[in-house]
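Task card 7
Instruction: Convert sequence to structure tokens.
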Amino acid sequence: ATLAMLSSELEHDVLDEAGALSALERLAYDWRGHPAQLSIARLTAAIHERQGHIELALRAIEEVVLGAEGRPSGRAAARLATDLMRRTYADAPSTLPVDQLAAFWRYEGFVPPGPEGTDVRLAFAQALIAYGLPNPAIGLLEPLVRGARGPVQGQVVDLLAESYLAANQPARVLDLLRAAADESSVSEPGLNLLAARALAALGRFAEAAGVLHDNPGEEAAALQADYLWKAGLWREATTAYRELLQGPQDGQQQGQADPEIGVRLAAAAYMAGEPELLERTRSTAEAGEAGLDTSAFASLPSPDSTARRTVAAQLLDQAAGLSGLAERYGLGSTQNP
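Output:
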């Protein structure tokens, strides 16, 4: 009767939540070991959950689980805890409050083992990666990948590969993808993107670009062009950047090209060392292809002039994030031809 009255007073705002929690704490002490303790814990946990205090909610339920182990009320409390873990982690956004990350490790035992708990562990691993914690995510996902089947396997493989990449372990990505390659449930385009990123992280840029050949999607096309550039495959990079400019990039409208792509296109055409290719690329750009800004070509010498290598060095330095290429190819800005 006291519990029913508390519930009614809460529902009709006669009693605030702080007062209700205080009263419930006294009831839980008085009714320890009684089946009614389950109902007390259920209401206590519901209040804590509404307040966002997941660890306190789970702690209230855990007291019943431990105190009534092996009895119906203990098993019912364990189911309550499992449902709360699923609501908190499987249905939550990838970025969880830090205190809820800690609560998962403390109460992971309430997550069912095997496939039944995979969705909860996957969601929690995503939260860990979002917080820049790939190593704990790896520890959570590696046991899952061995037993995952069907579409879930693809999700586990993708997330584990992302975790390996974030932890700077690209070789393990390749091992994982080789093991998953025969599984029809794993998306081949998705595998190719992950494999290419792993190969690039190992400095194997030409192989990374090859993996992405004919891979659909703008992301794959942009990565392939960049990997060709970083491999020093200038003719192929020229073609790739020109094809990339034929469609709008992220955040760009049709007819408005990313200026950085224009710089890379100009430098790739120049570095290819083929005057006809350079002139054809320059002419196409000046004709207004894809709204390309032609300023990157302004400092390029004409095909019949004596080209200075410093021109290429300057273009390479302009390309954001790629200044290391100047050292790789001996193109220091003060170098003579």
